[in-house]
Design a protein that fits this description.
- By secondary structure, the protein is of the alpha/beta class.
- It folds into four domains: 31 residues, no CATH class; 284 residues, Rossmann fold; 37 residues, no CATH class; 163 residues, Glucose Oxidase, domain 1 (3-Layer(bba) Sandwich), CATH 3.50.30.
- Strands 13-12-11-15-16 form a five-stranded mixed β-sheet. A four-stranded parallel β-sheet has the order 2-1-3-4, with helices on both faces.
- Strand 9 and strand 10 form a beta hairpin.
- Helix 12 packs antiparallel against helix 13 and helix 12 packs across helix 16.
- Bound molecules: FE2/S2 (inorganic) cluster (FES) and magnesium ion.
- Keywords: Iron, Iron-sulfur, Lyase, Metal-binding.
Length: 591
């Protein structure tokens, strides 16, 4: 594809080369000359490409991008563009308190302001850690200038005593062993640290690998980008190719709105089931779709994705980690299997300028232990079930992590397959859970379901990853690793717990979970797609009328702004007012 610029003026020329306003043009241009650029190049009618830098010392999952920057810039130069790197508000999943989820929308807002207010014609979105990917894609969707994602890649595989130690997943397992007294604090720390052997993001199919696979499935990254481990030379090459490619996208005016279509989102949902992806993908994809103006609903996850088989054998749903996934062919190999089975919208446009179907030509699994053929999967029907009932309008259950043991224990009573009735134990948040989980007075046993509330977008604030509550130590010692758990928060994508989560609306805004009491009977019916508190309607109504919303205390100004404007997880946890702003690039900011 050659230079197809036609006679368009670039946005950046409105800053750097506006003959109608020499005064402002001079002012805009002079300070960019004092270090790196010459007047000739800034006025050379070449596209100016922003590089949204999400890595820093505070954001180690994305720090690889600091080292990839030379290659991205070289690609942009060789493509004929001019690179300008700029910082993004850090969103480190493991570092930010109270939760990185609070900052996805803040980084989104920051990105929109940068893309709108500065002389940029296209952008490379560096991604990696969980929320960085959706934040960048949400901003690109709102702005709608040409954009391409480049993730940093997963860390190398972690190993502990001859076994793979996967990010996050090793934490949940080791935490149980610590509670049971089978390992001590030192071994606990060593096991967890062993899972992080190099630069890169989580090496499991947690939220980071999931969301980068989603970016690729949506058509927003180059083919094969997402699974390349961070330290590999292929990652460097991909950085260069991505830089080169964005320049041509600007020349061709290939925008997010050409790529982020309903078909692209359906492809992403299908890929998510096939990879055993994170329960955080639904709110993030929902947010991207809303900013892109695409109709998507939480129930689409079941309608479109439930009957897709699990093809990828990677933790937490399987056994391998990122290096094996890459060597087996990564996302293109998964998608090639789905394409062969007729499950993809092959005509969806992508950043390559070709359709997804074209990008996948010649791709195939290189290792059937890691990426299974469509007709010989690890598990049939591996997508999410979307539940509703009197406790919430919607909540998700990830079926690919329902273990045989869990199914037999809770969901296979003769004649009652898929149904579980039990006593509710209700916690008011993670602090209350930690204080009381081992309280013998609660009498927690395997006939209980653990509930946690006040941990949604408004409640926490930001929504906390706490629904995968560990059973009491005494229950663990009986060999029961998981009790059914339910909550209006989220859980880590690295968790192997089949929780019922993302319940919307959340309790602090009056969702049904608010009226549940410890001791109530609750019925889960997977066949009917329902979960209900078995409380008399009159009694339920009386509790509703007596309910007093909790007082929410903000610790920072952003928490207050966020709480006033955020929606529910089922709708993507967006700043609701922001969804009205679309194709922002069509208006130039004032001088
Ligand atoms: Fe950053 Fe998992 S904690 S990628
Ligand atoms: Mg997480």
């Amino acid at each position: 594809m050659g230079n197809t610029r036609a006679n368009r003026r670039f946005r950046s020329q409105e800053w750097f080369d506006n003959p109608n306003n020499p005064g402002m043009t001079a002012l805009y241009i002079e300070r960019y000359l004092n270090q790196q650029f010459t007047r000739e190049e800034l006025q050379s009618e070449r596209p100016i490409i922003g590089i949204a830098q999400t890595g820093s010392d505070l954001a180690p999952c994305n720090k690889i991008h600091v080292f990839l920057m030379d290659r991205i810039k070289a690609g942009i130069r060789d493509g004929g563009g001019i690179p300008m790197e700029f910082p993004v508000h850090p969103i480190q999943e493991t570092g930010k308190r109270p939760t990185a989820a609070l900052d996805r929308n803040l980084a989104y807002l920051g990105l929109v302001e940068v893309l709108h207010g500065y002389p940029l014609d296209g952008v490379v979105l560096t991604t990696g850690c969980d929320k960085t990917t959706p934040a960048m894609l949400m901003g690109a969707a709102t702005m709608d200038i040409p954009a391409i994602t480049l993730n940093g890649g997963p860390m190398l595989d972690g190993w502990w005593q001859g076994k793979r130690a996967g990010s996050g997943t090793v934490v949940w397992e080791s935490r149980r062993l610590l509670s049971e007294g089978k390992i001590d604090y030192e071994e606990f720390m060593s096991r967890v640290c062993a899972s992080a052997p190099s630069l890169g993001h989580c090496n499991t199919m947690g939220t980071a690998s999931t969301m980068n696979a989603m970016a690729e499935a949506l058509g927003m990254s180059l083919t094969g980008c997402s699974a390349i481990p961070a330290p590999f030379r292929e990652r460097m090459n991909m950085a260069y190719e991505t830089g080169k490619r964005i320049v041509q996208m600007v020349l061709d005016d290939l925008k997010p709105s050409d790529i982020l279509t309903r078909e692209a989102f359906e492809n992403a949902i299908i890929v998510n089931s096939a990879i055993g992806g994170s329960t955080n993908a639904p709110p993030h994809l929902q947010a991207i779709a809303r900013h892109a103006g695409v109709e998507l609903d939480v129930t689409d996850w079941q309608k479109v994705g439930y009957d897709v088989p699990l093809l990828l054998n990677m933790q937490p749903a399987g056994e391998f980690l990122g290096e094996s996934f890459f060597r087996a062919g990564g996302v293109p190999a998964i998608m090639a299997e789905l394409k062969k089975a007729g499950r993809l919208h092959e005509g969806a446009m992508t950043v390559t300028g070709r359709t997804m179907g074209e990008n996948l030509e010649g791709q195939a699994s290189q290792d059937h232990q890691v990426i299974r053929p469509y007709d010989d999967p690890l598990r049939e029907k591996a997508g999410f079930i979307v539940l509703s009932g009197n406790l919430f309008d919607s909540a998700l259950m990830k079926t690919s992590v329902i273990s045989k043991d869990f199914y037999q224990r809770f969901l296979s009573r003769p004649g009652q397959e898929g149904v579980h009735e039990a006593r509710a134990i209700v916690f008011e948040g993670p602090e209350d859970y930690h204080d009381r989980i081992n309280d013998a007075a609660l009498g927690i046993d395997e006939n209980c379901i653990l509930f946690i509330r006040n941990v949604g977008c408004v409640g926490y604030p930001g929504s906390a990853e706490v629904v995968n509550m560990q059973p009491p130590d005494a229950v663990l010692r009986q060999g029961i690793d998981h009790l059914p758990t339910v909550g209006d928060g989220r859980q880590s994508g690295t968790s192997e717990s089949p929780s019922i989560l993302n319940a919307s609306p959340e309790s602090v805004v009056g969702g049904g979970l608010a009226y549940l009491q410890t001791g109530d009977r609750v019925r889960l019916d997977l066949n009917a797609g329902r979960m209900d508190a078995l409380v008399e309607p009159a009694e339920w109504q009386a509790r509703k009328e007596a309910w007093v919303p909790p007082v929410l205390e903000n610790q920072t100004p952003w928490e207050e702004i966020y709480r006033q404007n955020v929606g529910q997880l089922a709708q993507g946890g967006c700043l609701e007012l922001a969804t009205a702003y679309q194709k922002v690039r069509e208006t130039l900011p004032r001088d």
